[in-house]
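Why do we care about 3D structure at all? Because function follows from shape, and shape follows, mostly, from sequence. That is the central idea of this module. The next example makes it concrete: a single protein chain, its amino acid sequence, and then its structure expressed as tokens.
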Amino acid sequence: MANLGIPQNTIAVLQKYNFNFQKRFGQNFLIDTNVLDKIISSAEITKEDCVLEIGPGIGTMTQYLAESAREVVAVEIDKNLIPILQDTLSAYDNVTIINDDILKVDIAKLVQEKNDGKPIKVVANLPYYITTPIIMGLFESHVPLKSITIMVQKEVADRMQVGPGTKDYGALSLAVQFYAKPQIVANVPPNCFIPRPNVGSAVIKLTRHEEPPVQVKSERFMFDLVRASFNQRRKTLVNGLTNAPNLQLTKEQVLEALDKMGVSAQIRGEALTLEQFGLLSDLLS
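And the structure:
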């Protein structure tokens, strides 16, 4: 089967099927064998693994995954790509193609059927507009997974791994770090894709924590607090939290909790660590 990581092979497939890129699906296909090798090696795919691939496109990375894994389940939203995938992956008997929106797929059920409920690995080259809902959906639904290795917009990758006090630090940083250990494994320039995106990309690996680094009474409440703290970055934490309609907190409650934590009443959300948000959440819940 022609290696789709080689640009002319990808172009040949696209021409054969008269494929038109869909802007609404944010389609950019990877055409760089070095980057593909890097993704497979950093995801540490072995013959033991069942891999969930989100957004296989024309099957470029799927071919690489199928060579390395025991089983691959590829979920593709664009029905026009399904016949192409059936063609480009015809040589592999360990790939299942599902035409659906990943946000609507029952992943826990899939893991049960394909991997006896044991943790899977997720690999994806995600459209940038939907990166956060997909990642958070995977973590918050607590499906059994070992790691997520994904291609995302460079600035989103940076945001996932920074700490307090930086301009990129926010709700996404805290959420990702609560569930996983983030590590950027490659920076990928625009010329590695067809069509070329307008921004640089990065491959980031999120290795799921065995236990969250912070134990809280209510995960949901803590993340509601986190989101409220960053909704209006210029405001103090006290104002951010008391203005959030879904939290129903009084100024006195928030000031008292901050006082117990030994933190200034003027502090902003971006200065708090994950541990401090956990403590604040427990004090306020």
